[in-house]
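Quick one: examine the sequence and fold tokens given here and explain what the tokens say about the fold. Here goes:
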Amino acid sequence: EIDAGTAPAAHFDDFLALVEGAQKAAARKDSVVPIVTGPLTLARLCSYKDGAVTWQTLMKKLVPLYVELLRVLAEKLAVEEVQLHEPWLVMGGAEGAEVREEVE
């Protein structure tokens, strides 16, 4: 549950370990393409405790963390491609269409 005091923080160690393990197991390191649920979907699926926080305000906090994750993947593990999945854009119904317009 998200409230005004919620401060998302970057804790990538477990995810990086999974990607690194997959790279070690793969025949070609560059064939490993991590898949990440996007910030929009994450923000839209959260439960909000009070009206002071909306999915839009949470997105503003999440996007820099996603940028950092992409940077770390590229620099530490030489990942060249990441699949960013945003199912909310297609599964959100009419509201998803409005969000699509806002995001585009």
About this structure: The chain has five helices and two strands. The mean pLDDT is 88. The first strand starts at residue 35 and ends at 37. The beta strands are 35-37, 83-85.
